[in-house]
């Protein structure tokens, strides 16, 4: 049974009103709110249930969020969790209750439905991601982790180190099929956020790459608040900072083997509370040779590092042509020659092959033909969502 959640009682419209006193508009209060906000309507399908949500993100909130672009992933996860307030939680609680679905699946399907688009800055704050209505794997993963944590689950980032790819890691206590890892005494299940994938389903060679679990930043309560001030001052003086400048974007920075953050071209990334002494600082990016340097950190001083990464020249072997390659060259004529024009499955298979070949326009055309021939197929809602995602992506591009 298909059900569309559009009743206001299910919070189909959620507005986040953060009007700034220096953002003024003429007209009524409603006009001011509309002018000072980016409005987006999200419509998605999960397991034959349709969901719809309209949100408004204030321009002032976006301006404030952009200041956090260079924050650590841990901080962005915490800020994302705080962003998804009671309005969001109420929507997903009631949507899951009315549809009979698991709340985590409904929430994850929302993030997965947002179109993929390469982002010039990895790991956008969630407000910017939702405001743009598209983003890359880092953006999807950060938003999904923040939302799941806000809903009461325990989620983190699954860093596919060799692929420079972020997905979601969901902590589960019971046995669950699919890709998982034990990290610091907990079992985490892999969940791809940038696409319609199921919990545990492998993407991006995640099962072949080293993994790192990144959790949201938490308040540090480990210090004894009753320590005398002089002890705290002495502790602070035993640290310094390392500031890194990079020759390319999206460089992963490691200090003494531990990942500490990202560095981008045109801006410096400073890492504080580094113990005094000698440290090995390494910059890594896929397709580039790692850059390593020894740095001596002094008390309360900043040590500067300049990463000059060199690209690795890769000689690609010519790819052997397959039957699928020949089919994709002239796929519509191939279907006609095989007398499969009225075969819905043929169009669906063609769409899947075209999708894998990153021929999005052709894939959309094939899926539309499949839906025309089999409008009541069990997986028709899924492919309608795929087509709708393509159309929204086209709107963003043009």
UniProtKB/TrEMBL annotation:
What segment(s) does the record annotate as region Disordered?
217-236
Stretch forming the signal peptide: 1-25
Phylogenetic classification of the source organism: Bacteria, Bacteria division CPR3
Q: Does the keyword Signal apply?
A: yes
Q: Which residues form a coiled coil?
A: none
Per UniProt, the keywords (alphabetical) are: Signal, TPR repeat
Q: Output this protein's name.
A: PEGA domain-containing protein
Q: Which InterPro entries match?
A: TPR-like_helical_dom_sf, TPR_rpt
The residues bearing each TPR repeat, given as ranges, are 344-377
Q: Name the domain of life this protein comes from.
A: Bacteria
């Amino acid at each position: 049974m298909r059900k569309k959640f559009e009743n206001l009682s299910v919070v189909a419209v959620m507005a986040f009103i953060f009007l700034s006193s220096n953002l003024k508009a003429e007209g009524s209060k409603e006009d001011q709110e509309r002018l000072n906000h980016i409005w987006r309507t999200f419509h998605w399908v999960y397991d034959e249930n349709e969901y719809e949500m309209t949100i408004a993100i204030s321009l002032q909130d976006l301006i404030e969020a952009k200041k956090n672009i260079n924050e650590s992933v841990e901080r962005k996860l915490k800020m994302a969790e705080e962003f998804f307030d009671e309005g969001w939680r109420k929507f997903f609680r009631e949507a899951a209750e009315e549809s009979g679905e698991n709340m985590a699946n409904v929430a994850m399907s929302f993030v997965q439905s947002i179109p993929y688009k390469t982002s010039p800055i990895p790991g956008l704050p969630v407000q910017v991601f939702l405001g743009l209505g598209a983003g890359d794997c880092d953006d999807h993963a950060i938003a999904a982790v923040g939302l799941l944590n806000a809903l009461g689950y325990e989620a983190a980032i699954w860093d596919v180190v060799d692929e420079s790819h972020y997905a979601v890691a969901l902590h589960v206590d019971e046995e669950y099929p699919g890709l998982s890892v034990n990290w610091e005494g907990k079992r985490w299940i892999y969940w791809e956020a940038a696409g319609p994938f199921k919990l545990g389903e492998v993407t991006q060679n995640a099962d072949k790459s080293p993994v790192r679990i990144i959790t949201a930043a938490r308040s540090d309560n480990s210090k004894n608040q009753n320590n005398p001030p002089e002890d705290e001052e002495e502790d602070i003086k035993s640290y310094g900072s390392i500031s890194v400048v990079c020759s390319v974007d999206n460089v992963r920075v490691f200090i003494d083997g531990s990942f500490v953050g990202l560095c981008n071209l045109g801006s410096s990334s400073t890492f504080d509370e580094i113990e005094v002494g000698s440290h090995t600082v390494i910059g890594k990016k896929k397709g580039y040779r790692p850059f390593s340097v020894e740095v001596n950190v002094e008390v309360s001083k900043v040590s500067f590092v300049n990463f000059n990464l060199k690209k690795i020249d890769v000689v690609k072997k010519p790819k052997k042509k397959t039957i699928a390659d020949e089919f994709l060259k002239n796929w519509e004529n191939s279907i006609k020659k095989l007398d499969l024009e009225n075969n819905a499955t043929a169009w669906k298979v063609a769409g899947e092959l075209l999708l894998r070949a990153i021929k999005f326009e052709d894939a959309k055309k094939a899926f539309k033909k499949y839906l025309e021939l089999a409008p009541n197929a069990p997986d028709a809602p899924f492919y309608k969502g795929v087509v709708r995602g393509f159309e929204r992506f086209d709107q963003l591009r043009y």
